[in-house]
Amino acid sequence: MTARDHLHRFLAFAAVGLVGTGAHYLTLAGLVELLGVDPVAGSVAGFVVGAAVNYALNYRLTFRSDKRHREAATKFFAVAASGFVINAGLMHLLVNVAALPYLLAQVGVTGFLVFWHYALNALWTFK
Question: What is the rounded CA–CA span in Å between residue 65 and residue 23?
Answer without folding.
Answer: 23
